[in-house]
From TrEMBL:
Family annotation (PANTHER family): GDSL ESTERASE_LIPASE (PTHR46020:SF32), OSJNBB0059K02.9 PROTEIN (PTHR46020)
Protein name: GDSL esterase/lipase
InterPro entries according to UniProt: GDSL, SGNH_hydro_sf, SGNH_plant_lipase-like
Pfam families linked to this entry: Lipase_GDSL
CDD domains registered for this protein in UniProt: SGNH_plant_lipase_like
Biological process annotations from GO: lipid catabolic process
Organism, scientific name: Escallonia rubra
Regions annotated as coiled coil: none
Family named by the database record: Belongs to the 'GDSL' lipolytic enzyme family.
Domain of life (superkingdom): Eukaryota
Signal peptide: 1-24
Keywords of this entry: Hydrolase, Lipid degradation, Lipid metabolism, Signal
Gene Ontology molecular functions: hydrolase activity, acting on ester bonds
Length: 348
């Protein structure tokens, strides 16, 4: 009798949690839910800004799950931006590159994120995060596309997934110099966050670095069995600095404008559990990508001169966490999004 009472009570407690949680999500009961999303950063957030002629993201099999053809997303389907927009209940913001073609869509915000970029200049030519924010600023001050009111009900997503570090090593940077370079990167990131908020955007979310040592690029050495812990240690240093910078910015600002979306812990949690407790997804070999070049000199989407496929794709992208050597599948992003739910509460 007693036990069933306890069970009944806890069932009710859970139920009420679910109901209130859901109500907040649907109606934004006591909070102002942002109605626009502005996005800065790289391929983890890009939904079509990369030049069509130059990126694999515009080639088959990218986009096969959503929207069913290549769309400039670096995945088989939806990416972080799409899930965050869904959370807000708005359409995924239009890529800056396509803004003139869909004036009706400007009301949902805009996506400036471009694959391959960082806070500094990387191996792709443009636009670094400073230039992305410059473009945003011009839309406010010069073209008056967005008003102060618009920005007050806006959220910014800032994605920094590690291209600055790839560029650092590609240019011959040393392991010894890495720590001070990480400090430079995070300091520049901090200036960017402050600038976005200074332009009037009320809430600014910034990602931690995902576990770089767990990307297929690194785990290919161990046949996709083990993460590279040396790389993940450097990532942890970056992430500690990001947390510190966000705490400092909040201490200096009026209304806790800044918060962290912890990709490191959400990726780690999903990879460790193979996605199991989060939704119905299951990733049998979570470190192995769905789409791979047939050898190291080919990437997912590569073709030879005669148009022959130089890559292989798994039969079911739903069962893979990673899409290519750097990016999650839509199923991967969905499970990361589920793991991020607690930090998304900070939006309110
Ligand atoms: C960003 O790119 C612009 C234009 O190429 C360049 O002038 C600027 O120095 C870059 N900013 C940073 C922080 O690297
Ligand atoms: C881990 O990464 C570091 C730095 O990129 C590299 O020097 C090392 O060889 C890697 N270790 C393994 C076991 O792959
Ligand atoms: C917040 O700022 C005040 C002064 O501006 C400072 O004394 C305090 O140490 C800061 N706290 C944190 C957590 O940075």
């Amino acid at each position: 009798m007693e036990l069933s009472k306890v069970l009944f009570r806890s069932y009710f407690f859970l139920l009420s949690l679910l109901i209130t949680g859901n109500e907040g999500w649907q109606h934004g009961a006591h909070h102002v839910r942002p109605t626009k999303l502005f996005v800065f950063g790289d391929s983890y957030a890009d939904t079509g800004n990369y030049k069509k002629s130059e990126a694999n993201s515009w080639k088959f099999p990218y986009g096969i799950t959503f929207p069913g053809k290549p769309s400039g997303r670096f995945s088989d389907g939806r990416v972080l931006t799409d899930y965050l927009a869904k959370y807000l209940g708005v359409k995924s913001p239009i890529p800056y590159r396509w803004r003139k073609f869909a004036p009706k869509c400007l009301q949902f915000g805009m996506n400036f994120a471009t694959g391959g970029t960082g806070v500094f200049d990387t191996l792709v030519s443009e636009p670094n995060m400073t230039t992305q924010i410059d473009n945003f600023e011009k839309l406010i001050t010069k073209d008056s596309v967005y008003t102060k009111m618009d920005l007050q009900s806006s959220l910014a997503l800032v994605s920094l997934a590690g291209n600055d570090y790839s560029a650092y090593f590609a240019r011959g940077g040393s392991a010894q110099g890495l720590q001070s370079f990480i400090t430079l990167v995070v300091n520049q990131l901090s200036l960017n966050l402050k600038r976005i908020n200074g332009l009037g955007v009320r809430k600014v979310a910034v990602t931690t670095l995902e576990p770089l040592g767990c990307l297929p690029r690194s785990t290919v050495m161990s046949s996709f069995q083990q993460c590279n812990e040396t790389e993940n240690k450097a990532v942890s240093f970056h992430n500690i600095l990001v947390q510190q910078v966000v705490a400092k910015l909040n201490n200096e600002s009026q209304d806790s404008a800044f918060f962290v979306l912890d990709l490191f812990s959400s990726f780690s949690r999903v990879l460790k559990s193979k996605g199991a407790p989060l939704g119905n997804l299951k990733f049998e070999t979570p470190l192995k990508p769905c789409c791979m070049g047939i050898s190291r000199s080919y990437a997912c989407g590569s073709m030879d001169e005669k148009g022959g496929k130089m890559y292989t794709v798994c039969t079911n992208p739903e069962s893979a966490f990673f899409w290519d050597t750097l990016h999650p599948t839509q199923a991967g992003w969905h499970s990361v999004y589920l793991a991020l739910q607690a930090s998304l509460e900070e939006i309110h």
